[in-house]
Design a protein that fits this description.
The chain contains 4 helices and no strands. The protein is mainly alpha-helical. It has one domain. Helix 2 packs across helix 3 and helix 3 runs antiparallel to helix 4. It is elongated, with a radius of gyration of 13 Å.
Length: about 80
C-alpha cells in the first residue's frame, strides 16, 4: 500500500508543514481533516474484512485528492 502521509507526498515542504501545523489554525484544520480521511482509507484497505462499499472508498479517495490539492495550494501560497 502506498504511503499518503502529507510529508511523504510533499517532502520538499516537510519543514513548512511542521511549522504551519503548530502556528496556523487554517492549515492545521485542513491537515487534520486530510490525515483523518487518509487514516480511514488505510483502515479500510488494510482490514481483512472491508466494512464499506467500493463507492464509499472511492468517494473517500476523491476527498483525499481534493484535500491534498488544497493543502498543496496553501503550502505554495504561505
Amino acid at each position: 500500500m502506498e504511503n499518503h502521509n502529507l510529508t511523504h507526498e510533499f517532502p520538499e515542504y516537510t519543514d513548512k508543514i511542521n511549522v504551519l501545523k503548530l502556528n496556523d489554525e487554517i492549515f492545521r484544520k485542513m491537515y487534520v481533516n486530510y490525515e483523518e480521511v487518509n487514516a480511514l482509507i488505510q483502515h479500510y484497505e488494510e482490514g481483512e474484512q472491508n466494512h464499506t462499499t467500493d463507492d464509499h472508498l472511492i468517494d473517500l479517495r476523491k476527498k483525499r485528492v481534493h484535500l491534498k490539492d488544497d493543502l498543496y495550494s496553501y503550502l505554495r501560497q504561505n
